[in-house]
UniProtKB/TrEMBL annotation:
<protein>
    <recommendedName>
        <fullName>FAR1 domain-containing protein</fullName>
    </recommendedName>
</protein>
<feature type="domain" description="FAR1">
    <location>
        <begin position="49"/>
        <end position="134"/>
    </location>
</feature>
<dbReference type="Pfam" id="PF03101">
    <property type="entry name" value="FAR1"/>
</dbReference>
<dbReference type="InterPro" id="IPR004330">
    <property type="entry name" value="FAR1_DNA_bnd_dom"/>
</dbReference>
Amino acid sequence: MDVIQLNECDYSSETHQFDEFTVQTSCVVDEGFVPKVGIIFETPEEATKFYKNYSKLSGFSTKIRNTTRDGDKINNQLIVCTREGRWKSKISPTLKTNPSAGLNCPARIYVHIMKNVGVWTISKVALNHSHPCCPDQVKMLKQHRELRMFVRRTIETHEEAEIRLRKTYQSFVAAAGSHRELGFIEKNVRNYIIREVQNISEEDNAKEFGKCLCIWNIMKKNPNKLNGYKGHIDIEQEMSHVV
């Protein structure tokens, strides 16, 4: 079994542009949370959760890159940093605002089942990243965003009172002092309202979004054409931060 670039994670001298703010990166993780060759798990899900917890402490996010099966049974999995891979963006570098583009990051773990004992183990580890990590901003990464119970109850209360989504989100920002202090973004609030409060399926939500997008495009090209449409103000406010 191999260890690939098994070095201490330390980016204390680097800075990374994230969410329009320059933050100082630092990665000091307790040794018990650091992936090592030979660590044992009862299930592949435990291994995935272990690496996810490590990524949250270290300032990055993870995804399952590859799974090998024997029938219905999983034999091994490759779990990587979400910024692995490289592609050529169709968007001009001067216009691109997404900070999560692939950087061919090598950080990963490889786990496989030990068939003779029926447990899982880490057989390969790569801790080095091709980019700085941001522990202070990790909760804004999609994998680590979370709506706590208090936030959910507040969203439900505001929805019953017919308070607009944007006002609900801004109330959380005001209470926290900054959107950087929240563990979620406005889109997470919207999705919670649609799927949990209004109980609308993801498929139906996509159809409704497509309808709003179509009307939004008409409004941009012919702003006076839909002024009589009673829902045009709501759509304009909803779509202005999406498109």
